[in-house]
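Re: [ENG-882] Designed sequences occasionally contain unexpected residues at chain ends

Forwarding the minimal case from QA. Structure tokens:
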């Protein structure tokens, strides 16, 4: 069990925070709004980057092709494909 927790600690913490926030919304709201949003984003990105090997990051900088392709697909191709589909929904749902 310990190797599983060590390997997936981020998911366990994320799940715990999610369940605690949903179970106790009134009690957790002051804590959630007291932390600046920029700090939360920075902390999550840092936690996600910690398991990466330095060699992997260096390879992504030396050969940016796959990263640029993934960025193109996420920010250009998927929205262009989703736009005609969104026209089938009500305006409130189509915006999402």
């Amino acid at each position: 069990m310990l190797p599983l927790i060590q390997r997936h600690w981020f998911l366990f913490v994320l799940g715990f925070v999610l369940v605690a926030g949903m179970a106790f919304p009134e009690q957790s709201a002051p804590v959630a709004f007291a932390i600046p949003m920029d700090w939360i984003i920075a902390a999550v990105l840092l936690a996600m980057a910690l398991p990466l090997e330095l060699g992997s990051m260096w390879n992504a900088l030396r050969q940016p092709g796959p990263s640029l392709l993934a960025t193109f697909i996420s920010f250009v191709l998927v929205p262009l494909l989703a736009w005609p589909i969104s026209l089938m929904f009500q305006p409130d749902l189509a915006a999402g």
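QA comment: On inspection the terminal residues look reasonable. Residues 37 and 43 are 10 Å apart (CA to CA). Proposing we downgrade this to a documentation issue.
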